[in-house]
C-alpha cells in the first residue's frame, strides 16, 4: 500500500505536465526533480532580478536630478541615510518630490 501512496503523491505533483511526464512514474520522478531544481534556482534569480530593477530605477531617477547611481549611493552612505535600494526605488517611483528632497539633502 505504501507504494501506491508514494505514486499518488508523485503524480499529484506532476498534474498539468504534458505527455508521459504526468502519468509514467519514471518520467514523473525526473520531471519533479528537475522542477524542484528550477524552482530553487528561480528563487535565487528573482532576488538578483529585483535588485537590478531597483538599480535601474534609481539610476534613471538620479540622472534626472543630475547625479549618477553610484554617486547617489556613495552620497547616501556618507550622509548615513539607511534606506535600502528597494525603498529608495519605490520612493523615486511613487513620491518624486520626496526623492528630490533626499537627493538635495545628500548633494550638499
Mind explaining what this structure looks like?
This protein has 108 residues and is an all-alpha fold. The chain has one domain: c-terminal domain of poly(a) binding protein, CATH 1.10.1900.20. Helices cover 78% and strands 0% of the residues. The chain is built from 5 helices and no strands. The chain has helices at residues 2-13, 25-64, 69-78, 85-94, 96-107.
List its traits.
mainly alpha; c-terminal domain of poly(a) binding protein; rod-shaped
CATH architecture descriptor text:
Orthogonal Bundle
The dominant shape is: rod-shaped
Strand content: under 5%
Number of domains: 1
| Highest-level CATH class | Mainly Alpha
Major β-sheet, in short? none
Low-confidence stretches: none
Helix content: over 70%
End-to-end distance: 74 Å
**What multimeric state do the chains show?**
single chain
Give the SSE string.
HHHHH
Q: Overall mean pLDDT score? A: 96
What is the number of helical segments per DSSP (H or I, 4+ residues)? Answer: 5
How would you briefly describe this protein structure?
This protein has 108 residues and is mainly α. The protein has 5 helices and no strands.
Task: Give a topology summary.
Layout: H1 2-13, H2 25-64, H3 69-78, H4 85-94, H5 96-107
Helix pairs in contact: 1-2, 2-4, 4-5
Amino acid at each position: 500500500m505504501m507504494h501506491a501512496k508514494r505514486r499518488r503523491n508523485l503524480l499529484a505533483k506532476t498534474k498539468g505536465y504534458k505527455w508521459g511526464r504526468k502519468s509514467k512514474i519514471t518520467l514523473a520522478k525526473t520531471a519533479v526533480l528537475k522542477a524542484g531544481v528550477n524552482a530553487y534556482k528561480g528563487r535565487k534569480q528573482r532576488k538578483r532580478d529585483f535588485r537590478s530593477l531597483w538599480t535601474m530605477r534609481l539610476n534613471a531617477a538620479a540622472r534626472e536630478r543630475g547625479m549618477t547611481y553610484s554617486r547617489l549611493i556613495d552620497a547616501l552612505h556618507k550622509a548615513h541615510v539607511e534606506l535600502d535600494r528597494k525603498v529608495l526605488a519605490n520612493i523615486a517611483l511613487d513620491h518624486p518630490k520626496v526623492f528630490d528632497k533626499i537627493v538635495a539633502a545628500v548633494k550638499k
